[in-house]
Automatic annotation (TrEMBL):
The keyword DNA repair does not apply. Residues 4-57 form the HTH asnC-type domain. GO terms for biological process: response to amino acid. The keyword Kinase does not apply. It comes from Manganibacter manganicus. This is AsnC family transcriptional regulator. PANTHER family: LEUCINE-RESPONSIVE REGULATORY PROTEIN, TRANSCRIPTIONAL REGULATOR AZLB. One of its GO terms (cellular component) is cytosol. GO terms for molecular function: sequence-specific DNA binding. Keywords: DNA-binding, Transcription, Transcription regulation.
Length: 145
């Protein structure tokens, strides 16, 4: 895989915020022709830098339950685990972190039953060594855009 240059990083930054941006608009914003921008996006997809496009959905229910699932993996990398997590609409954010834990997963679910189901699914994954669940009681500061 070639090293990402400034144009690639600019494309990724835009696509991470606006996955449905028309190629013509993307190209104009990064200073490339439409065909050059399209070629770069195709190459980023082919090499796995871009693994997919997803809808980022805001809070759907005011009474939804939010929780953090803290996971220690039995081995890394665990790309299959990330792909599995991405397939669940309840998964809002996944962060790979340093230290004793490997992943922090933020979920938003409609019920405790659904939280338990998701927790059971994740805990049974081969790559998961340990899982801890923390339910969010309230958000005191939220600076999300």
């Amino acid at each position: 895989m070639k090293e990402l240059d400034a144009k690639d990083r600019a494309i990724l930054a835009i696509l991470s915020r606006e996955a449905r941006i028309p190629m013509k608009a993307l190209a104009a914003r990064v200073g490339l022709s439409r065909s050059a921008a399209s070629e770069r996006v195709t190459q980023l997809e082919r090499t796995g830098v871009i693994r997919g496009y997803r809808a980022d959905i805001g809070q759907m229910e005011p009474n939804a339950i939010r929780a953090f699932l803290l996971i220690t993996l039995s081995h890394t990398p665990a790309i299959d685990m990330l792909d599995t997590l991405a397939s669940y609409s309840e998964v809002r954010r996944v962060s790979s972190i340093s230290g004793h834990l490997d992943l922090v997963i933020e979920v938003e679910v409609p019920s405790i039953d659904r939280l338990n189901t998701m927790r059971d699914i994740m805990a049974s994954a081969e790559a998961v060594h340990d899982l801890t669940t923390l339910i969010v009681l309230r958000r005191d500061i939220d600076r999300a855009p």
